């Protein structure tokens, strides 16, 4: 029997969160103290793809905990930051996220700025290029991914980024405890998905279009879960912020569409629920994931952490499992994707576990 590598990585995600907290929190606190000594006022979190979505999710922690005059957090795509760099000074810092430690745009930014600006790398791979270029490095726990469609690495690099943001924001101890509690919520969510997916698959296997939407931290989870749907199930999937979904994708929803509504138990959930109801009324099938379901269609129950800024850690793994099972039902092997050549053609060999790009 062929080993299911991605499936195992999904199951490993809760432990990867715990391992990252255990190994990275002391380092994050040391880095945060240096930020305060340097009077850092702006912290740019950069990455591409999954790493950008981690940057976006972690920035919500800084935004929700932020106070006037404290450090401000800005997520940006690494390529955009590299070629359209903001005006920087000694009161800025850059966090570059790259699971492989070899993503070319992050490395180029660090090569340019690591003397003048505090540069912090977050990676899974000891000894990778980013560890040599960064002023400091956070090594995310859980081990290096063995597959090109990364799952646990999203959770571990995001956990490391959350730790650094919490430490920089001098967040209360209870926030760190809540972050750790996400591991248990994540495990429960994966188990709930295991139970729900067999009934869901026959209802969605024929779709070619999926629209994931949510508000605030759930929006970051939408982007990552839609990416997993594309990479594994090989169908068109979009991640949209709830209010943008209402004014954009809503015009093409009908019985040929799958909508995935993500809830965080936060301020934007009522608007997400309204959009889910409308989508169902317009004929789309609606899968809701989170602590509530209002559309009367499909639901994967997942609890929310006390602080909704950690929502992405809890919502993405069950949806990654759905994408994996959907891929199998559609005849694809996500562990050995046919699109790998397209990545290497673009010079993204780092994503395939090969030489650096």
Structural write-up:
This protein has 357 residues and is an alpha/beta fold. It has two domains: 5-171, 3-Layer(aba) Sandwich (Rossmann fold), CATH 3.40.50.10490; 188-329, Glucose-6-phosphate isomerase like protein, domain 1 (Rossmann fold, 3-Layer(aba) Sandwich), CATH 3.40.50. The chain is built from twelve helices and ten strands. The protein has helices spanning 5-37, 50-65, 78-83, 104-113, 129-133, 152-168, 173-204, 217-233, 242-247, 269-281, 311-329, 340-345; strands at 42-47, 72-77, 92-97, 118-123, 136-139, 209-214, 236-241, 258-262, 285-290, 298-301. The strands form two sheets. Strands 2-1-3-4-5 form a five-stranded parallel beta sheet, with helices on both faces. β6 (209-214), α8 and β7 form a beta-alpha-beta unit. α7 (173-204) packs parallel to α11 (311-329).
Round the mean pLDDT to the nearest integer and report it: 92
Rg, rounded, reads 19 Å
Side-by-side strand order of the widest sheet: 2-1-3-4-5
Report helical residue fraction.
Answer: 40-55%
CATH architecture of the largest domain: 3-Layer(aba) Sandwich
Q: Report the biggest beta sheet as strand number plus sense, adding barrel if it closes.
A: 5 strands, parallel
User: CATH topology of the largest domain, which one?
Assistant: Rossmann fold
The domain tally reads 2
**Low-pLDDT regions:** 352-357
CATH superfamily of the largest domain: Glucose-6-phosphate isomerase like protein, domain 1
Number of strands: 10
Which secondary-structure class do the elements indicate? alpha/beta
CATH class of the largest domain: Alpha Beta
SSE order, as H and E? HEHEHEHEHEHHEHEHEHEEHH
